[in-house]
């Protein structure tokens, strides 16, 4: 059972607000959107993986005290040595690229055929 970051009392995992101090625990009043909150005078950005790799677009960065996309760099899945990294073979990557870019390939084939006909 998690605790409220403001009053440190135990709260239900589905609670939208803390029943003790009325602190919001879920973003936008939706039980599926977690609202991460900094404790004390610290900021979430100091420990966030997105801030570290400069991919964060949150407007309150680097002084955010609340965030919905916070990813703690100490507990990130990229630091897990047992994390499975999916590697595709070269042939599968080529097929995937051709499928994604089939319009460009079709135009290229039309241009090549047109040039071949024009030269004959």
Automatic annotation (TrEMBL):
Keywords: Membrane, Transmembrane, Transmembrane helix. The lineage of its organism: Bacteria, Bacillati, Cyanobacteriota, Cyanophyceae, Spirulinales. The chain crosses the membrane at residues 103-119. It comes from the Bacteria. This is Zinc ribbon domain-containing protein.
């Amino acid at each position: 059972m998690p605790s409220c970051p403001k009053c440190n009392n135990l709260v239900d995992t589905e609670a939208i607000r803390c029943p003790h101090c009325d602190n919001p625990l879920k973003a936008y009043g939706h039980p599926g959107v977690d609202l991460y909150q900094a404790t004390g005078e610290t900021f979430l950005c100091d420990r966030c993986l997105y801030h570290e790799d400069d991919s964060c677009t949150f407007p309150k960065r680097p002084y955010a005290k609340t965030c919905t996309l916070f990813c703690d760099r100490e507990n990130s899945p990229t630091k897990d040595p047992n994390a499975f990294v999916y590697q595709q073979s070269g042939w599968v990557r080529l097929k995937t690229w051709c499928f994604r870019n089939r319009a460009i390939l079709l135009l290229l084939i039309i241009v090549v055929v047109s040039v071949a006909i024009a030269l004959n």
